[in-house]
Write a structure and sequence with these properties.
The structure is a single chain. It is built from 4 helices and no strands. The model has no long low-confidence stretch (mean pLDDT 90). The chain is 83% helix and 0% strand. Helix 2 crosses helix 3 and helix 3 (61-76) packs antiparallel against helix 4 (81-98). The protein is mainly α and 99 residues long. It has one domain. It has helices spanning 3-24, 32-57, 61-76, 81-98. InterPro entries: Brnchd-chn_aa_trnsp_AzlD.
Amino acid sequence: MSLAVYVFVMAAVTYLIRMVPFTFFRKKIKSRFFRSFLYYIPYAVLSAMTIPAIFYTTHNIYTAIAGTAVAVVLAFLEMPLIVVALAASGSAFLMGLFI
């Protein structure tokens, strides 16, 4: 198949995913439960995509745990994102050197 067909199908699917909620939900959503549910969807999806990647990227569970622990502690201390990312990567790397 042509590359243009693949691009067209991806564009159509992306457009439909973004357009469908706007066509069905024309009024403001007043349900507190449904609004809170929709509020947390991006965080849940991001976590579902990120957490498995954390533990399968290094091919060693101990380096993954070390990096995750450092990231969680620094994020809890409200450090900047670049500090959290660099420290987590560095701690996973150092753990990998010692194992």
